[in-house]
Amino acid sequence: MYKLSEKGERIQQMFDSIAPRYDFLNRLLSFGIDRRWRRFAVRQIQWHEGARALDIATGTGDVALEIASQTPSSVTIVGADFSREMVELGKEKVRNSPHAARISFEIAPCESLPFADGSFDAVTIAFGIRNVVDRPAGLREMYRVLRDGGRAVILEFSTPRSKLFKSIYYFYFLKVLPVIGGAFSKFSAYKYLPDSVLEFPSQDRFKALMTDAGFRTVRHIDLTFGIATIYIGDK
């Protein structure tokens, strides 16, 4: 069994603690734009009948449900997350959706996925890769469980390039967001969010990490003035 590092355990406990208000605060703090980003990210994958998809750091299952809404009924989805509380909320959300028969869940960290090599046609992870303590190991696991010809799509926060927009974004992200998040949930968790984004590698460096893990034709797409970025890699 994979043992999380001390930092990994702290992050896991943090997500367990904020799980009950997680969906609400996602919508509030992003003004609902996060839904549009997820829809666009899922559209970057080409699907076929009977395909299998894995959504890592699935949280409460938003991306898993988005995949189900965009794909044929023969496509099955597994959501994996290391937070048991998040997964339990995801299971409840899926049970109340039209896609309950197509989505299952596993409790597992990105660095140690309990699936055989080449198990999936697509792998996604949205706003989760920055929480993976050993990112190279996590990316190698994503590559391992993909079949040949499969695709990984990674959606993550990034830093806007425009100086004017960056200053506005930083003020909101560093000053306003933690206060709002703390009012409804846990301040320390929503202080961690901007800190984790600011320490995330540059787009070029992260694409290099994907290439090192084995991915080919690695590219990125900026979203909403560079607030978020989609990274795409093929096997």
Structure write-up:
47% of the residues lie in helices and 21% in strands. It has 235 residues and is an alpha/beta fold. The protein has one domain: Rossmann fold, CATH 3.40.50. Strands 3-2-1-4-5-7-6 form a 7-stranded mixed sheet, sandwiched between helices. Strand 1 (52-56), helix 3 (62-70) and strand 2 form a beta-alpha-beta unit. The protein starts with 5 loop residues before the first helix and ends with a strand. The relative contact order is 0.15. The model has no long low-confidence stretch (mean pLDDT 90).
List key phrases describing it.
235 residues; Rossmann fold; alpha/beta
Write a short abstract of this structure.
Helix content is 47%, strand content 21%. With 235 residues, the chain is an alpha/beta fold.
